[in-house]
Amino acid sequence: MLGRNASSVTDFILVGLFPEFQHSTVLNFVVIFIYILAFLGNLLLIVLIWGDSRLHTPMYILLSQLSLIDLTLTSTIVPKTASNFFTGKRTISRVGCGTQSFFFLMLGMSECLILTLMAYDRYVAVCIPLHYPTIMNPRFCLHMVAGCWIGGSISSFIHTVYPMHFRICGSREIHHFFCEVPVLIKLSCEDTSVYQLVVVVTSIVLLVVPFNLIIASYTLIFLTVLRMNSVKGRKKALATCSSHLTVVSLFFGPNIFIYMTFTSSHSPEQDQALSLFSNILTPMLNPLIYSLRNKEVVAALMKLMVRCGVS
Question: CA-to-CA distance for 69 and 147, rounded, in angstroms?
Answer without folding.
Answer: 14
